[in-house]
Design goal:
three-stranded antiparallel β-sheet, Arc Repressor Mutant, subunit A, 39% helix, Rossmann fold, alpha/beta
């Protein structure tokens, strides 16, 4: 049966770090990001104040104030200054090229560093602000998503429903989808719903039985009305999480590569154009399908890394995210730009 659980508060809960304050000095505050995005749109892209207000989801009076602050703080001279300005440029270029409402680029201390901690902190900060009462939230899995938990600001919400989009309860793994859903629900005092089955089963018949007669179909139907879906994509490199922790074999990895796969979304493998590849493995997965993820009102795709660039391109085409969270190395690769040079001592 699919399990439903109410998470609690009180002794025994792990202490959390508070939002982007936990990753200083790399992170930039929300107000600074908003101010520089407004300045970039006005002075560089020559957008009107009304258009900027629509793009940022604020009032025109707020835009006027942001532009005045940018001038007073000397953010605007001949051009925007500082590293934040370059991140703003990257965000805006990806938003326009891939038709995404909001792109968040996490800065790295040095090019080539592991991007997961930076992306995780940005995920935690974003979700801390945007998860609200009366929402139905669907969650994917993976190292980056799991490590975002310490960066979330815990608070008690009313009538929050959190759904696992991938099976895995029967498999004790380092990055189990169930753990992420459970701990996320705890952070906001929500109800957690799990796909209580392995992520991968042995036959299509088993999958059909679990969905139709063991309660999984009810959970999947709930995922057809998501307010927010938060997912990541996996790459097909040898050290990818799904292969490294033993979910999938090397033989399977090679056969997926041969079929044209570049990455996966909830174990649904796709090509660089975002099309699900023709491979029998895709029929054995216990997870919510990409079509239902695309129906979510808000779709957050969060991922990055040098081995995932094709997977990111395909994932964007497949999910059509409204929000994309990644790192600066990955976003430069997506745009075909050369990597940032290391800081010299």
């Amino acid at each position: 049966m699919a399990k439903r659980s109410k998470s609690g508060t009180g002794p025994g809960r792990e202490p959390k770090l508070g939002g982007l304050d936990a990753v200083a000095p790399l992170a930039f505050g929300k107000s600074e990001r908003l101010r520089l995005r407004a300045a970039w749109m006005y002075y560089v892209e020559e957008m009107t104040q009304n258009d900027i207000a629509d793009a940022l989801g604020v009032g025109r009076v707020t835009v006027v104030r942001l532009l005045a602050e940018a001038r007073a703080r000397h953010d605007v001279r001949i051009s925007l200054v500082g590293k934040m300005a370059d991140l703003t440029r990257l965000e805006r270029e990806v938003e326009k090229r891939y038709n995404i409402d909001r792109v968040i680029v996490a800065p790295l201390s040095e090019p080539g560093h592991d991007p997961a901690p930076a992306i995780s902190s940005a995920i935690g900060a974003y979700l801390s602000e945007h998860v609200q009462s009366n929402m139905v939230v669907g969650l994917g899995w993976g190292r980056t998503l799991l490590q975002s938990l310490p960066y979330m600001n815990e608070r008690s919400l009313e009538n929050l429903t959190v759904i696992s989009l991938l099976g895995g309860v029967g498999q004790v793994r380092r990055f189990n989808p169930t753990e992420f859903v459970w701990r996320f629900a705890q952070s906001f005092d929500g109800d957690a719903y799990f796909l209580a089955a392995p992520a991968v089963v042995d036959s299509v018949k088993t999958k059909k039985t679990l969905i139709e007669k063991c309660g999984l179909g009810t959970i999947m139907d709930m995922a057809s009305a998501l307010d927010l879906a938060v997912v990541s994509v996996g790459g097909l490199e040898e050290n990818g999480t799904a292969f490294r922790v033993g979910y999938l074999s090397e033989e399977l990895r090679m056969s997926l590569v041969k079929a044209g796969a570049v990455g996966d979304l909830l174990f649904h493998f796709f090509d660089r154009n975002g099309r699900i590849v023709d491979h029998p493995f895709n029929d054995l997965v216990i997870s919510v399908g990409p079509d239902r993820v695309r129906q979510a009102k808000q779709r957050v795709l969060a991922s990055g890394g040098p081995g995932k660039i094709d997977a990111l391109r395909g994932g964007i085409a497949l999910v059509r995210p409204t929000v994309f969270i990644t790192d600066e190395d990955s976003v430069r690769a997506l745009l075909g730009e050369p990597p940032r040079q290391p800081t010299r001592p």
